[in-house]
Amino acid sequence: AQSVTQLGSHVSVSEGALVLLRCNYSSSVPPYLFWYVQYPNQGLQLLLKYTSAATLVKGINGFEAEFKKSETSFHLTKPSAHMSDAAEYFCAVSDKGGKLIFGQGTELSVKP
Amino acid sequence: DARVTQTPRHKVTEMGQEVTMRCQPILGHNTVFWYRQTMMQGLELLAYFRNRAPLDDSGMPKDRFSAEMPDATLATLKIQPSEPRDSAVYFCASGPPGVNYGYTFGSGTRLTVV
Which runs of E-coded beta strand occur in chain B? Predict the structure, then answer.
């Protein structure tokens, strides 16, 4: 069975600082991996996805993630945090059948 | 932009009442998911469909929950009878053929059972 673990339920950074949100996955087959963002009282929005092409994936709003098979990781980064990045971020894994399983989420706070 | 439409946005109901939530997937999308989000459990997959056929509903309490797709433009999630522990935000998501495109989420139905 596939699963996702997000390390840290809450991350706080200063505006302009590096954002690093951690995600490790478990999958017996090559996975499809996703990061979603959820702003308060809204649905989830796709940030980026890994689908076995390039291991470094660029997404919207300046975010990117690197797939590392040896570490079973798919961490999300952004070089410089902005106040508008404050939200909850979800890592998700899908198999070839399309079943999408989410991690528990990481709430990102950005301090001025 | 194409969007997944969920109705109602908010629902307050009394324990024991029937609740029906509706989802209109994006035209052309053939995969539909239902998720439940709570503070304690996070995002739980309740059920998902492909080409209107249920693929997996193992996350759904069978005694009170049911999910259907009467046609390609409508998915429904029904709770009968509702209980206070069903209070949550219910999300619908849809995706096009092929699993590597990601899925588009609706804005959710916030259900409160009193």
Answer: 5-7, 10-13, 19-24, 31-38, 42-50, 53-56, 65-71, 74-79, 88-95, 104-105, 109-113
